[in-house]
Amino acid sequence: MLADHGVACVGDLLLHTPRRYEDRSAVVPVTSLREGEAALLRGTVRRVRVGRRRGRGRGVVHAELVTPEGTVPVVWFNQTWIAGRLAGEPEVFLFGTVRRRGGTEVLQVVNPSVEPVDAGEVEALRIVPVYPRLGAWGGRRLRRLVGHALPALGRLDDPVPAPVLARLGLPGIREALRTLHRPEVPEDPGARRALVEALEGRRTPAHRRLAFDELLALAGAVEGIRTRRRTRRAPRCAAEGAPELPLPFELTAAQRRVADEIARDLSGERPMARLLQGDVGSGKTVVAALAAWRVLHSGFQVAFMAPTELLAEQHHRTLSGLFGGTPWEPLLLTGSLGASERRRVLGRLGSGGPCLVVGTHALIQEAVSLPELGLVVVDEQHRFGVAQRRSLVEKGRAPHLLVMTATPIPRTLALVAYGDLDLSVIDELPPGRRPVRTVVRTRDRAGKLWSFVAREAREGGRIFVVYPLIEGSEGVEAEAVEDNLPELRRRLPGLAVAALHGRMDAGERRATVEAFRAGGIQVLVATTVVEVGVDVPEASVMVIESPRRFGLSQLHQLRGRIGRGPRPSWCVLLVDEERLGEAARRRLEVFRSTTDGFRLAEADLEIRGPGEVAGLRQWGADGLRHARLPADLDLLQASREVVASLASRGELDAVLSGLGGYLRGTGEAGRD
Fold first, then answer.
1. Within 10 A of 31 (CB to CB), how many other CB atoms are there?
2. Does residue 417 register a pLDDT over 80?
3. Burial letters for 581-613: b for 16+ Cβ neighbours within 10 Å, e otherwise?
């Protein structure tokens, strides 16, 4: 059972650190009890009686705890067995929360733990760790198990060299783990409170030591990937003398700079591994097309993978326009492809020779053969796992890799999520992109909003209305597509209003998007399926319902669907004031104030933490068990420097071997 939850050895158990702490280090006199606080009391239990809660039929145990300072009522709900345990105990410790007895001024202790004073091992008079459950084990039982493992610390060698720890001001691993599992109790009450607060806030030197070890293990794993890549020989795609890909527009300076970086990588003998970041509409696909052109001219194959059929079809359409009239008309491979067309595409790919294929996860299926694969392009990488990316790369001998994302990632997080990749950024939008005005509107003003939407649609604009859910849910307070579609059709008479969401089959989704693009549908009522892959220059209004349900990066992606044509564009956040919490209010205000994707990503990192930014849990950044970003960014930078230093001295492998346990639980990247 423990192994099923990531605990396969004693070391794993010792790395299973507490999630919070209970200060049971001092007995509180009953005269000092305060409502809402947890307290440790010592005394004798009297007048134990078992009853029933009115109207609920559940057991309740009432008692009194007699102490030298006075008597206090005690109550246990739904624990009738506790009455038998209390019988015959001369003196006990109780630890529980102080509450008022319903509607009165009388204080009582609710559902306290019970320990005989003369027990061999008591959890009173110390700071008690509370652990995340491991299967059926939790509470006192799990604390005892960890306690049995603590003597093994004496046999634990520290994997990190002492000079490194001294330079960073970090404790040894034995001291750190002993502090976290059995913190020493300071005599001074103020120092004791400060220690408990630091433990609860994960701010102790012991916590920082474990965070550093975890980041060091991750940095070492990334360095190992880079080192292995440097030993492989890639297809050299210099394409000397090849004509340039004819483009119907001028590249921006940023596009030219990034294209030159990629060209230098492709002409080398080592596999390129590059992350291309660029805001929505910055022209990443064109830069990828230039790279594909160079690889095709060098006689190799190019595979372009997108996370959804909509996005794959959009890329196929764009690339077909750019490569039309060349020998390399792009192929399309998706799950909904007909059997005969699928056989044709697979046959063309398997025969070798230069070709360009655009597809979804269908590209990584075993039946797909790419014997002369020279370049892999992965778009919206955060929607794929590391293993999926690797599966496509391994269809070639050592192909070049270009990973693209339109979701801005703070550079600090990019070092964690894509630390094995070189970084390029397109930080300039093409000329002609119109600014989008973003406004927040409350539901009581929805009538004016829908009048504006109707006018805009009749004047030639297209409208997105985005909801977080397909249909209403009792467990989630948010608006839904199916619930609101009839009302929107009533409010927008004479307009073609249609739904688009993930439960529709691929053919129906494709037909709906094409009708919206052609103008047969004027208002598209959708989920975030339109976040990528729906490029309609006429789209001028984006209404986002229940925007509190989305992160800043996702809101930014949605807003990027408009402002691509000549019409002035509006993004309207429709909110319910009563449901808008403070964090959501801050997030929406930041979103309203800027269209800079990187500023929004930094703000998202501060407000929500790394787990949600750009879906980084695919890589494992929010699967870090000990490190916290951005709080531990100094340790992240230090870990990279230490890895470089250890590698230069040939000591890295030995250190990483000792740190192996830290990468358990960090997902596919950890297993790599």
1. 9
2. no
3. eeebeebbebbeeebebbbbbbbbbebebbebb
Q: How many CB atoms are closer than 10 A to CB 111? A: 15
For residue 227, CA distances in Å to 157, 223, 244, 286, 536 come to 27, 6, 33, 30, 43
Strands of 497-500's sheet, edge to edge?
A: 436-442, 569-575, 539-545, 462-466, 523-526, 497-500
Location of structure tokens 């760790």 = 129
Strand partners for 63: 74
Count CB neighbours of 60 within 10 A.
17
Question: Which DSSP string do the residues of 290-304 spell out, in sequence order?
Answer: HHHHHHHHTT-EEEE
Angle made by CA atoms 135, 140, 141, in degrees to the nearest 5: 50
CA 401 to chain centre: 23
Under 8 Å between Cβ of 535 and 314: yes
DSSP string, 357-370: EEESGGGGSTT---
Cβ 91 vs Cβ 50: under 8 Å:
no
The model's pTM is: 0.70
DSSP for 63-102, written as a single string? EEEEETTEEEEEEEES-TTHHHHHTT-SSEEEEEEEEE-T
Element housing 657 (H / E): helix 652-658
Handedness of CA 112, 118, 120, 125 (dihedral sign): positive
Residue 672: pLDDT band with limits 50, 70, 90: very low
Q: Tell me how far apart the alpha carbons of residues 497 and 255 are, in angstroms, rounded to a whole number.
A: 37
**Cross-strand bridge partners of residue 94:** 41, 114
Domains of the chain and CATH, by start: 3-158 (2.40.50.140), 253-426 (3.40.50.300), 436-594 (3.40.50.300)
Structure tokens, 81: 């067995």
Span of 87-96, 149-158, 175-184, 623-632 with lowest mean pLDDT: 623-632
> Is the CB of residue 362 less than 8 Å from the CB of residue 333?
yes
Cβ density class 295-317: b for 16+ within 10 Å, e for less: bbbbebbbbbbbbbbbbbbbbbe
Q: Which two tokens stand for residue 391?
A: 């599966």
| Helix axes 253-266 and 284-297, enclosed angle (nearest 10) | 30
**Of 485, 488, 487, which is closest to residue 499 (Cα–Cα)?**
485
Count CA atoms closer than 13 A to 478's CA, side-chain side. Answer: 19
